[in-house]
Amino acid sequence: MGFTMTELVMVIVIIGILAVAAIPRFFDRQAFESRGFHEQIKAVVRYAHKAAIAQHRAVFVNTTVNAICLTYVADAACTNVTAADVVLNPANGQRFSQTAPANVSLTAASFSFSALGQPSTGAVTIGVTGDGMTRNVVIERETGYVH
After folding, report:
1. Fewest CB atoms within 10 Å of the CB: 26, 41, 55, 75?
2. φ and ψ at 88, to 5 degrees?
3. How far, in Å, CA of 99 to CA of 88, rounded?
4. How far is it, in rounded angstroms, from Cα 119 to Cα 32?
5. Residue 15 and residue 2: Cα distance in Å, rounded?
6. From the CB of residue 72, how many other CB atoms can be counted at a distance below 10 Å?
7. How far apart are CA 48 and CA 119, in angstroms?
8. Where are the extended beta strands (E) located within the chain?
9. Within the chain, how many helices (H) and strands (E) appear?
10. Which of 120, 57, 106 is nearest to 78 (CA)?
11. Residues 146 and 46: beta-carbon distance below 8 Å
């Protein structure tokens, strides 16, 4: 009715193998930070798309190697804009921007969404590089769909 000694030893061996193989991955934050920042970039670009359509005006998505921000004017560096030209984050009322974590970078790909939600440069790809791999955020040409 109980377990044999062999079964108990095998379970302990399997747990040991899993601990050696899997647990170190949980302590490497770079993989989680890279994936999380990729999701944040998608959310920011989706918000820009929806804001352009809802407000019937162009919204510019400005990216640098380590940051992304939203404005109502073209400014690739996101530094020379006035308070009236900055898209505000509805969650906190602050400037809508995200800075990449350490060891995570972006490909610079500044563009705008028209009042119809179409990207100004056709299809756009923003690469998020970290943890030894690149994850792409793709914006479709005619619809502005972000995935």
Report:
1. 26
2. -95, 145
3. 15
4. 29
5. 20
6. 19
7. 10
8. 59-63, 67-71, 97-99, 105-106, 111-113, 124-130, 133-139
9. 2, 7
10. 106
11. yes
Q: What pTM was computed for the model?
A: 0.81
Strands across the sheet with 133-139, in order?
105-106, 124-130, 133-139
Other Cβ atoms less than 10 A from the Cβ of 61: the count is 27
| Intra-chain end-to-end CA distance of the chain, in Å | 54
DSSP output for 32-43: HHHHHHHHHHHH
Tokens of 37: 């920042």
With b for 16 or more beta-carbon neighbours within 10 A and e for fewer, the 33-47 pattern comes to: bbbebbebbbebbbb
3-state secondary structure (DSSP) of residue 61: strand
pLDDT tens-place string over residues 126-138: 999 998 899 999 9
pLDDT at 24 over 80: no
What pLDDT score does 10 carry? Answer: 95
